[in-house]
Amino acid sequence: MPASDTPHTPPLATVGDPDATDHLTAWPVSIGKAAQLSGISPKMLRHYETLGLLAAVPRTDSNYRQYSLADVHTLRFIRRARDMGFGLDAITELVSLWHNRRRSSASVKRIAQKHRDELEQRIEALQAMQRTLGHLLHLCPGDGRPDCPILDDLSHPDTTRSGTKLYKPATPGEQGRNTRGTH
Questions:
Q1: Which one of 8, 31, 34, 46 is CB 3.0 to 4.6 Å from 67, fit for a cystine?
Q2: CA separation (Å) from 150 to 74, 127, 145, 182?
Q3: What global pTM score does this model have?
Q4: Count of beta carbons in the 10 Å neighbourhood of residue 16
Q5: Residue ranges in the chain assigned as alpha helix (H)
Q6: Cβ(31)–Cβ(42) below 8 Å
Q7: Nearest CA to 90 among 72, 65, 67, 109?
Q8: Please, what sign has the CA dihedral across residues 22, 65, 71, 69?
Q9: Burial class (CB in 10 A: 0-12, 13-18, 19+), 152
């Protein structure tokens, strides 16, 4: 079968598969049903549609959106990618690659590798924060006196007394972005 640029639609579900009710559903479905089937709120579903993550969704004569099985599969893909912490730019690229049967797996791997590297950096930063807080907790007597090494350290936001940087200032490209898990 020749490769095409048509959207990827997974085969119908089998018993025991989380998609097992798909074949029982009358398609197309309303936004509420699409949201329920994909595990995404209707508000986020509309947001993803405005971002172009979904193809243009047909509407009824009454202007109600009508979602296909392929749309719901795309929404599940988006939800899973969000659950794995991918940002919207990466998800946009991944959805495009998923729908492109001529894609190279190298392109997908590059995106996943970059995300994994970013996760490793975040984990290292969180572990450094954990170590610093553990050290500060050890230094704090936790008694009735007002002296507190934790507050002393927090009053110097650039570095701790041990020299461990607690946060990384946003780069110009990251400022103003709503990235998951950073705030």
A1: 34
A2: 47, 17, 13, 22
A3: 0.71
A4: 6
A5: 31-38, 42-50, 69-83, 88-99, 105-139, 149-154
A6: yes
A7: 109
A8: positive
A9: middle
Q: Which residues contact 134 (CB under 8 A, 6 or more apart)?
A: none
- Positive or negative torsion for Cα 82, 44, 74, 72: positive
Q: How many other C-beta atoms can be found within 10 angstroms of the C-beta atom of residue 132? A: 19
- pLDDT tens string 138-173: 999 999 999 999 999 999 876 545 555 544 444 444
Instruction: Provide the token pair at 1.
Output: 């079968």
How far, in Å, CA of 163 to CA of 154, rounded?
13
Beta pairing partners, 29: 67
